[in-house]
Amino acid sequence: MKIDSVQVESARDSSGRYANVNSPKGSIGGRCADSLLTINWEPEARTIEALVVLGIPISVIESRVASFRNYYLYSQIREISWDARFVYHVSRQWKKSLDCRKAD
């Protein structure tokens, strides 16, 4: 089956992701639409637990919340899951800090 490239491009949402064209307006692939981070956002307990399981100390996780919130509040980036973005952000920063220690 050949897919028309015009249809494919029109299925992209404003962030460049492919949206489910059959989903109701305001949803993407059956999930809630992307949203901006709110000023009172905090990671869920299960998000913190997931980072601890990855070996990241709770003190490091807690120290990243404010900088993460400040960055994304002003960036106007939209996300489906801010907790998933936080896991990615913290784990990446943690890996960088470990790599720097190994280089010393």
What's the helix and strand layout?
Layout: H1 5-10, E1 27-28, E2 31-32, E3 35-36, H2 45-53, H3 58-75, E4 78-79, H4 82-103
Antiparallel strand pairs: 1-2, 3-4
Helix pairs in contact: 2-4, 3-4
Protein described:
The protein contains 4 helices and 4 strands, in the order αβββααβα. The protein has helices spanning 5-10, 45-53, 58-75, 82-103, and strands at 27-28, 31-32, 35-36, 78-79. It is 53% helix and 8% strand. It has 2 domains: 1-33, no CATH class; 34-103. Residues 1-12 and 17-30 have low confidence and may be disordered. The strands form 2 sheets. The protein has a two-stranded antiparallel sheet with strand order 1-2. It has 104 residues and is mainly alpha-helical.
Provide a short characterization of the protein structure.
This protein is mainly alpha-helical and 104 residues long. It is 53% helix and 8% strand.
Unreliable sequence segments: 1-12, 17-30
Radius of gyration: 18 Å
C-alpha termini separation: 55 Å
Given the C-alpha coordinates, what overall shape results? globular
